[in-house]
Amino acid sequence: MERAIAASTLVTPRAPGPLRGPGAPDVLELRPGAVTWDEAGTITYVGPPEGLAGIEPEWFEGCTLAPGFVDPHTHLPFLGWRADEFEARLSGTTYRDQAGGGGIRRSARMLARASDEEVLAFCRPLLREMLAHGTTALELKTGYGLSVEAELRQARLARRLAAEAPQTCTVTLLACHAVPEGLDRAAWVRAACDELIPAAAAEGLVDAVDVWVEDVAFSLEDLEAVGAAAAEAGLPLRCHADQLGPSGAAEAAAALGARSADHLNHVSPAGIAALGRGGTAAVLLPTATLLLRATPPDVPALLEAGAVVALATDCNPGTSPVVSMPEAVAIACALYGLAPNEALVAATANAAWVLGLAPAHGRLAPGARADLLVLEGDGFRHVPYRPGHDPVIRTVVGGEVAWER
Predict the structure, then answer these.
(1) Distance (Å, whole) CA 269 – CA 395
(2) What is the four-CA torsion angle of 183, 189, 193, 196, rounded to 10 degrees?
(3) 144 and 184 in contact (C-beta within 8 Å)?
(4) pTM, whole model, 2 decimals?
(5) Which of 186, 160, 180, 179 is nearest to 171 (CA)?
(6) What is the C-alpha to C-alpha distance for residues 198 and 234, in angstroms, rounded to an integer?
(7) Cβ of 41: how many Cβ atoms within 10 Å?
């Protein structure tokens, strides 16, 4: 039996990602609009309510139907917060200053001390909170293991979370996040390439491989080595690029055919041009930019160059303890100058493409999965217009109501 829902406005990307360029010519806006889906949770109709074939829709006056948000960059699973580090940065300590005993290594120690059940119990409420803020698909990521076995453990925990979460979850192996204590950088990169990536792939634990390229982390040569190991394992490559300073990581990631380059606060003009020409998405993390009080990336130039722009929360305990995609959208519009419909595309269709979930996720269209939101307000512009306010009235995942206010 088909189900139907209608609202004063419907907005959706017209096509699956990747969508490129400034403006939002690929956004469909209907006033009013309706969606139907079948028992399998697959959308069967998107259009004006008068096109419904004998189905009485559930109406939401003054509201907007939109695709569920897709969050393509989070660091779940983890355990524990680091609020004192945020407070220290407000007093002048830099993130580089915290990269020794604090930061990533501190989260790794907290994860190592916790049992599997303690980690899962900590993460479940965060996934529920994401659901309440409209996230219907997301990335989970390792990187707090810092040994071969501990990274595999974190990947297994991520798969356990994915199996029980209402949302669709992919898992990324952040093989090179920080150098483990007792090893030098070259030794850890060899272990990641020769042991970790093949083991994770053989066990089917991960869907992509990631590297943090930075002067406090890993080099362009390391990115190339990890990219080769990922390709050998049949896994796409992703890259934390140009966050704390210019490194050339964006152009290197594009040259390697990486799925994404993330952060990009200090991306160079050459990096912008490379992202515009190639198939590597620019994943922007506005809440991390805000909380680190960092230089914003040149988003207008990325759009003008034709880059595929996506948005994410970067949910992590150190630099972006944020689970809300509406908050990421609001900050991206205010801080980066994205138009509301540009942010819609970045938080849905393009984000789904980054995770390899297009065309089934990230848009409302016949044949797509029935992941959709009922949002307060007549039009998507109300999402960035009211930062700090959760606009989600209902979250539907796979055709089932997964959360409702």
Answers:
(1) 39
(2) 40
(3) no
(4) 0.97
(5) 160
(6) 10
(7) 15
CB of 192 closer than 8 Å to CB of 235: no
Residue type, 274: A
CA 174 to chain centre: 14
In order along its 405 residues, the chain shows pLDDT tens digits of 799 999 999 999 999 999 998 875 689 999 999 999 999 999 999 999 999 988 999 999 999 999 999 999 999 999 999 999 999 999 988 877 766 667 999 999 999 999 999 999 999 999 999 999 999 999 999 999 999 999 999 999 999 999 999 999 999 999 999 999 999 999 999 999 999 999 999 999 999 999 999 999 999 999 999 999 999 999 999 999 999 999 999 999 999 999 999 999 999 999 999 999 999 999 999 999 999 999 999 999 999 999 999 999 999 999 999 999 999 999 999 999 999 999 999 999 999 999 999 999 999 999 999 999 999 999 999 999 999 999 999 999 999 999 999
Separation of alpha carbons 254 and 281, rounded Å: 9
Look at strands 237-241 and 208-212 and give their pairing: parallel
Nearest alpha-carbon partner for 13 in 380, 387, 314: 380
> How far apart (Å, rounded) are the C-alpha atoms in residues 405 and 55?
25
Q: The tokens of 210 are what? A: 């990631």
Other Cβ atoms closer than 10 A to 84: 9
Distance CA 260, CA 347 (A): 14
- Cis ω before 18 (30° cut-off from 0): yes
CB atoms within 10 A of CB 126: 17
For 56-101, the DSSP string reads -PEEEEEEEEEEPEEE--B--S-----HHHHHHHHTT--TTGGGTT
Q: Residue for token digits 């160059």? A: 305
Q: Does residue 249 sit in helix, strand or coil?
A: helix
